[in-house]
Design a protein that fits this description.
It is built from eight helices and seven strands; from the N terminus they run βαββαβαβαβαααβα. It has one domain: Rossmann fold (3-Layer(aba) Sandwich), CATH 3.40.50. The chain has about 250 residues and is of the alpha/beta class. It has a seven-stranded parallel beta sheet, sandwiched between helices.
């Protein structure tokens, strides 16, 4: 029976992906920074482990506890919304530590077993922001674009060993907490300082009034498809808005 290890499963896409793989009969290792009871169904095929992608010791401990893994889904991520001028560099580094370096760390940790076994899939969850130019997402997009490039080159490095690397690009989802957080821990005035405020607030309003959004199930199903792909496809948009952006591109 195959095993998937998924990061960032406490809510949103990660939680739904863990549920989906479990429903398909897989063994699931669901990881999160602070394990909480009741987040995922109790099952002898589903284990919840502590893993903070910014802390190497927890990455190592989780992989040791997980045992052999067939698919790694790097889903853990943090948002960053606001104009770049008003974003402290400390926040920029925090976003990259999770969204970029954290993905690299977990990937590097799992590769030896994939390479030695001659099989395995790394699925990196990025975002539809990589598919178009969007204001107020400068830092977030930069962190996700880095993973797009990382995955594309990694796929070439791993191909001779029978190991695959893919990206899943979710669209915007209003049913998760992800898009509703104030990532700087402050007010909208701090995120959108003058003279950016008028058009920045309008851009946020335009975003929330768009017709197409992504459901958590869209992402889970797309991660599943990416993990099972044998065509060599690298990038998988997830959700109708992401698919529309990809087609336009």
């Amino acid at each position: 029976m195959n095993t998937v290890l998924i990061t960032g499963t406490s809510s949103g896409y990660g939680r739904e992906t863990a549920r989906y793989f479990h429903e398909q009969g897989w063994n699931v290792v669901a990881t999160m920074r602070t394990p909480r009871p009741g987040v995922l169904p109790e099952s002898d095929r589903l284990r919840v482990l502590e893993l903070d992608v910014t802390k190497p010791e927890t990455v190592e401990a989780a992989l040791e506890a997980a045992g052999p893994v067939d698919v790694l889904v790097n889903n853990a991520g943090i948002p960053s919304i606001g104009v770049f001028e008003g974003t402290p560099m400390a926040r920029v580094r925090e976003v990259f530590e999770t969204n970029t370096f954290g993905v690299m760390a977990t990937t590097q940790a799992v590769l030896p077993q994939f390479r030695e076994r001659g099989s395995g899939v790394v699925v990196n969850v990025t975002s539809s922001v990589v598919l178009g130019h969007m204001p107020l997402t400068v830092v977030y997009k930069a962190s996700k674009m880095a993973i797009e490039g990382f995955t594309a080159s990694l796929a070439l490095e791993l191909a001779p060993f029978g190991v695959q690397a893919k990206t899943v690009e979710p669209g915007a989802c209003l049913t998760t907490n992800f898009g509703d957080k104030l990532p700087n821990g402050g007010s909208l005035d701090e995120l959108f300082p003058e003279p950016y405020a008028p058009w920045a607030r309008k851009a946020m309003g335009d975003f929330r009034s768009q017709e197409l959004f992504t459901e958590e199930s869209d992402v889970a199903e797309t991660v599943w498809r990416a993990a099972h792909d044998t065509t060599g496809q690298l990038r998988f948009p997830a959700g109708p808005d992401a698919v529309s952006l990809a087609q336009a591109r």
